[in-house]
Amino acid sequence: MKVVKILSYVWQIQSKQIVKGKSIVSIIGSLLFLAIMALYGVGVGMMFQYSERFHFAPSELLFFINTAILGMTLIKSYFPSYKPLANPLPSFFPVSRIERAFVSVILDIISPYSIAIAVFYGIVFSIGFEYIAMTQMLITVIIFFSISLADRSLKCLFEYNVPFRWLHLAIVTLNIIGFFLKPNLFANHHLFVTGVCLASLGQQCLLAFFVILPQTGIIRNAPLKHLATNDSRTKTTYIVKTFLRTRSVLIVLALGLLVQILPLTFVATRNPEQLRRMISDFHFNIVLGFVAPIACFTYILNNAFGLNWYLWQTVHLHNGTRISTAFLYLRLALTILTIDLIMLLPALWYRQILTIENLGFWFLSAVTMIFIGFVLATTQAMKIEKISMNMMTSIRSFSSPISSIITLVIVSILIFSYSFYYALSIGIAIIGAVAALFISFSDKTLKHKIYHAIHS
Amino acid sequence: MPLSVNKIAKNFNGRQILSGVGFEIHNSQCFWLVGRNGAGKTTLINILADLVEADCGSVSFGDWTYEKEELVIKRNLGVLPDKNPAIPQLTGWEYLRFVGLLHELPSDECSRRAQSLLEYFFDETEDAHKRIGTYSHGMTKKIGLCAALLHRPRYLILDEPFAGLDPVSSAKLVRFLQSYLNEERIIFLSSHDLSYSQKVITHLGILEGGALQFVGSVEEFAASKDSIEESILRVLQPKEATLTGLEWLVS
User: What is the DSSP string of A97-123?
Assistant: First the structure.
């Protein structure tokens, strides 16, 4: 009964917060977010209807979509709007461990993010109903549930002092890897996915049962830890070392490279003729998929130069200039571009689509993404959430209007130039334009105001 | 119902944080734990609050222990951790109502208590109906204090309660703690702020290198003519700090 009261109270508060204390602009912004998810749902639903023309089976398409959702779910922890509560009940309150575990898991699982994804899948399944088997739909829901749990586990492991943390991390990693391997290794993957989900649920309950305290001294913020041990002689090497040793940077970099598996799998399973026809018929270049890690990295670069207090203060309090910041940014960007290119070239060569045109397309896309991050990182000292996909998935922003509009223009050009479905891209661009205007009027929190005042 | 700590030891990553810490605090005592940074004060508080499990040793609140009467202890325990785990998505008022739910306080009573606590600790300019995520450091500390006091705990554990508070709020807190202490209650305080702490404390313990160097009443400790500050420095025996290496800076 107590658990029910707690849950109903929190949900009641959360539902009030959708409108409470918010301007009309902000409320419309939230509705816009749902509209964007719905629009994506319509677009993907239609892809099922035209799946034959794309030369892939509905089950394959579903796998790619699920993988994209997986990536987004794992990355979303870095978006303030979607921070899970993780552990709302510290253990000094008179609540039993089982009740605490239950409440923590339920509150995190049923979140605005999950609701948005539910809307997306609901529309996709409604439109592509004839092409997707019932079991596939069920498995998709189970996979999302399983990945949401894995995401929560990762967050708990990184932020809390949990007994047997390496064991938990191993289980979560196996869960994610198992999902990627599923179609290839297991004939009866329904059973496999259900097993993975159950294992994830069991592990999650165990984790929630054990989670007791944030940061007891074992887990410290990586930059602080490494500032003491970094013995670089020059400012640039000092900052580069600090940056690359930052835990959050490494996690997102690893995730970015994990996302690379998506286009790699796609390229590996098509024959060269299919790929060539897809590019010419639909103006959808698979090379675009390889830009995803760059997008991820652009995001973390912005984060690191934005709200990463340690690094930002190091740069700016120690006589750093925008020019030196920009050069540093470029050097880091070139590193990730090189890694990306090393993965891209063999894949294109293997499928005989290693052409100057494709390389040019990759270069244009990559430079565009880096340029967005470059402009944003050097024009403002605030946390920036807006690049490409983020622009479409997170309405709450602290970007300046000019940066938002620049981002919007660049992303729109990218979408217009290479989108495979013009009507959809026009819709996204229009909604994006309206979103950018709303973003520019969105409320800034006290923290950001103070931060801005300090650094302006 | 004394708060008894018996031979507590804790090890993190091969580093001994606490080794054989033991003391007893009786009713109407305000115990002040003092020590250098990294001496193990917060770890000890976390063990007392059941946030961290000790490697060995035991903690008991009268006849109650966490092994047998965990929920009974927590109904009688108010904790303000150094890093206050308030939910940033909720407003201060909502958070206090949420804590009231956890303690199963009747709704009206919870509102009444929350209102009076906020009126006492918050200034007129501070809005408790804003989200906690937008609070300043001091306001976050105050809302944590209100949450720790909402259920009238018999045992009150405060980790750095004065950190981040302005002088007016600190004075208010001192006055409150002086009034709160009675023959049924115990206050356990860890703070580096000597000026405010010494107005409240009756007993103190000096933690150094994971072990208690002194435990006793303020009278016993300050028996000599030295001030408490000087006495603490005498016990801790800090290495004499010279400015020789800093000539480049101070010259």
Answer: HHHHHHHHHHHHHSSHHHHHHHHHHHH
pLDDT in tens, B189-217: 999 888 899 899 999 999 888 888 888 88
| Interval A66-122: pLDDT, tens | 877 777 776 665 544 444 455 557 778 888 878 887 777 777 677 767 777 888 888
Instruction: Calculate ∠ Cα A246-A252-A253, nearest 5°.
Output: 85
Residues 130-169 of B with CB under 8 A from A: 133-136
A298-329 residue pLDDT tens: 554 554 443 333 444 445 555 555 555 556 55
pLDDT for the residue numbered A87: 55
On whether residue A366 sits in a domain, the answer given is no
Considering the domain architecture, whether residues B20 and B100 belong to the same structural domain is answered as no
Q: What is d(CA B61, CA B76) in angstroms, rounded to the nearest whole number?
A: 9
The boundaries of the domain holding residue A70 are 56-219
**Beta sheet of B64-65, edge-to-edge order:** B15-25, B3-12, B56-61, B64-65
Given B122, B152, B182, the domain boundary residue is: B152
Structural domain of residue B240, as residue ranges?
Answer: 1-76+156-251
| One domain for residues B66 and B165 | yes
User: How far off is chain A from B30, nearest CA to CA, in Å?
Assistant: 20
Rounded to 5 degrees, φ, ψ at A129 are -55, -40
pTM: 0.66
Which tens digit of pLDDT belongs to each residue from B28-39?
999 999 988 888
User: Do B79 and A93 contact (CB within 8 A), yes or no?
Assistant: no
Number of domains composing chain B: 2
Q: What is the CA radius of gyration of chain B?
A: 19
Whether chain B has a CB inside 8 Å of the CB on A323: the answer is no
Q: Min CA distance, A85 vs chain B (Å)?
A: 8
CA A13 – CA A77 distance, rounded (Å): 22
Residues B98 and B53 occupy one common structural domain? no
Q: What is the CATH number of the domain that holds B40?
A: 3.40.50.300
Same domain membership, residue B250 and residue B161: yes
Mutate to test the interface with A, among B99, B101, B102 (most CBs of A within 10 A): B102
